[in-house]
Each structure stands twice: as C-alpha cells, then as structure tokens.
Write a structure and sequence with these properties.
Elements: E1 10-15, E2 18-20, H1 27-31, H2 42-53, E3 66-70, H3 79-88, H4 96-102, H5 107-110, E4 114-118, E5 122-125, H6 131-138, E6 144-148, H7 151-154, H8 157-171, E7 177-180, H9 193-197, H10 200-204, H11 216-219, E8 221-224, H12 226-234, H13 238-249
Parallel strand pairs: 3-7, 5-6, 7-8
Antiparallel strand pairs: 1-2, 1-6, 3-4, 4-5
Length: 250
C-alpha cells in the first residue's frame, strides 16, 4: 500500500536473482515476452548495472543517492536518459525498436518507463504492456522493485496516470541528491535543472494530493552525471566486444 492507503497494484521484488511475484501478477502476465538478443544474458546484465552503481559508491558530498532515468515524453525524449537505458537494456531503445515498429508496438507504450538506480537497489516503473518486454533484461537485477499496474487497472487512463506519479514520488522518497543523465555522449549540454523541472513527470511531482508536496528541484539537489556515465559506457565489456566483432564480420 502507498502511505495514503492506495494499492500499489502489484510489486515485483527481485533479490539475488530470485524472482518473486506479488498481488495481482500471474504467470500469464510475465510469459508473453519479447525474445531478447543473445547478449542479454543475466551475468552481462548485472555487470553493466553494477558498473553504473559504482558511481554511487564514491565517498563524496557530490555523489548522488540515485541516478534517475526517465524515458519518452515524460523527459521530453531526453537523449541522455535514452542512452543510459540502451546501455542497461542492450539497445532495446535503439536498433531493436525498429522490430517493435514492424509489429505495430506503440512507441509511447514502450517508452513508458522510469528507472531509479540506487547503490544497492533499483526501482522500475513500467506498464503492464511493456513489462513483459523488459522482464528478460531486468529480472536478474538485485533488489529490484517494479511498480506496475495490472492490465485491467491500466485501462483506466486517469488511474494509470495517478499511479505513475505516485510510483515516481515513492521511488525518490529516500533520496536527497539525484543524478540525471542529462546529455548523450558527444553532445554535451549545459545542465539546467529548470529544464528538468519542465519534464512532464517532474512537473507532476508538485501536484497537490498525489504529488510529493512541492517542486521537485526545490526538494532534491539535482546533478548531471553524464560524463561519469560516459566513462562507464566507453569501457570495453563482453557485450561491446561482441557487438564490435559482429560489425567487423559484417
């Protein structure tokens, strides 16, 4: 339950690779999965996540408590967030998105994702449609908390929007400093927290009743973690090596 008594629909918790389903989730809900690339093996998934989490392990006053990645219209299609998502999800929002377009999968549904990466855990908001597509990539993440409605609940657009806002408020509740992957690699932009404040889901944080009780940028200290992430992205790992060898062979 949320603090105000509203149900969380269903919460999926994943600890040390053990996957647990609670409340309304059924096996059928999670079995209709998109077949991921061979590169999305669990050990590689976890390795990339751990590299990002290492940024949060540094003992410094400038170290954020979490890295916030918001996709789609909710971040005004921020390229830095998309780049981080592609790193963690093996280009799900890059080349593989073409495959989704071919089967008529709406972009706004696939993009309906919010991820908060903390040092020892991850919070993921998604919808019941893209949930099964994301599952093969995230199910091995340690201490994963998934905020997702059931299909029948999601059909109520107003309730779905309120649930997304409540999920966002809940996942950042314990943070004081939040890192934003503001710029994509090679396209550095001057960080402007007021631009972030204009992102739709961030604006919704200030709504009375369901929001977080004030403006997001006044409640949390925001910092740009783009350059720290670029160092992680540029490091050679088994996945990037596999991609490189594939490109050479082609």
């Amino acid at each position: 339950m949320w603090p105000d008594g509203r149900p969380t629909a269903f919460l999926v918790a994943c600890c040390d690779g053990e996957f647990m389903l609670h409340s309304h989730a059924t096996y059928e809900d999670v079995s209709r999965t998109y077949t991921p690339r061979k590169t999305s093996r669990p050990q590689k998934n976890c390795s990339r996540l751990r590299k990002v989490q290492e940024i949060l392990s540094k003992s410094s006053k400038s170290t954020p408590d979490g890295i916030l990645c918001i996709l789609g219209i909710d971040s005004r299609y921020n390229e830095g967030c998309r780049e981080l998502a592609n790193y963690l999800l093996f280009d799900l929002y890059g080349q593989q998105s073409i495959e989704f377009e071919e089967i008529g999968f709406p972009e706004e549904v696939l993009d309906d994702v919010i991820v908060l990466i903390k040092r020892d855990s991850v919070h993921l908001y998604c919808n019941p449609v893209n949930y099964s597509y994301l599952l093969p990539y995230v199910s091995c993440w340690r201490n994963l908390h998934v905020h997702c409605m059931t299909q029948s609940e999601y059909e109520d657009e107003e309730a779905a929007e309120e649930f997304k806002i409540a999920s966002f408020v809940n996942m950042v509740r314990d943070c004081s400093r939040i890192g934003i992957p503001y710029s994509s690699e090679g396209h550095l932009q001057t960080f402007d927290m007021f631009i972030v404040e204009k992102w739709p889901i961030v604006q919704a944080f200030a709504l009375e009743g369901i929001g977080g009780g004030g403006f997001f940028t006044m409640k949390y200290e925001l910092m740009d973690v783009s350059e720290s992430l670029w160092k992680v992205f540029s490091a050679m790992d088994p996945v990037s090596l596999e991609v490189l060898l594939t490109e050479v062979c082609l």
